Amino acid sequence: MTVAYLVISELEPERVTRLTATLRAGSPRAVIAVHHDEAAGSLDLLRVRGLGVDVLDTAEAPAGSAAEMLMLVRCLRVLLGSARFDWLVLLSADEYPVRPVSEIEASLAAVDADAVMERHACPAPKLRHAATVDEPALRYHYRWSRVPGPIGPAARGLAAALRPRMMAVTRPDGLWLGAPAKRSPFHERRLHLPPIRRNPFAGSRARTPFGEGLQCWYGPWRFALSRDAVAAVQASVLEHPELALYYRDTLHPAESYVHTVLGNDPLIRVRADDRRRWRSGESIGVGEIDEVLRSGADFAGPFEPAALDAVDARVHKH
Questions:
Q1: In sequence order, which residues have a C-beta less than 8 Å from that of residue 15 and are 6 or more positions away?
Q2: pLDDT on residue 202
């Protein structure tokens, strides 16, 4: 069995090199590819390519943006067309294998599924006046547009008065306004794609694909996909571009698009376990290594430098 590792990196190049070197040492036949944001520094291409690593792209893809989702889909398409693999494992550069790589690959070979990913259903919100809408529903059942700075205060006031029919969210790139998407006509056969608008105030022209036998799913974008599952994602992009276009106007689309495509494909079996030990906002320290290694996870992170050294010494013997 051949495994492809796709590493998405926004970290300093040395961390990328360390991760890919460990993957290569544990799996000499693996396909290893990297998408690296050069805002964090330039990769040592001679060293990385000496490890047999393909650098797919160095373009910026900000976290949570449509560019991040499109980058992910593009990388999957490139690997599907250029590499032979049975499973593809998607990693961020601040994850690290906490089992021998050979054991991780052997356990993947034994999985009776086509996708290994954490996922959760995302039902449509109830739009009662002043109701609270949970974060996943806000992300994927609303259409969002960025607000020009000068009208930000007025837009906030309007959103506060109309919620949940209009919602405001502050992101690193500014203020965004969202409005609930309308019912979708995508199940109908049409000669042309239905209109997709970036403006959330577009009324009947703003449409959601959900509700016509299509369920919304979401979860972390760290997952493992069989080749059949990667092919299903690519087929969806080609056969149902309106779904990808819809997701361009959502928040954090990379954390739902692939999950929704695979969760609605009757030929794809999903195992709802991403086999990861991930912590947001705080790095794993040396004192927590025993607990991480006992967890049975394949990958974990992020790690403090000394904890990463301990994992290398205890798991990878270097």
A1: 9, 93, 94
A2: 35
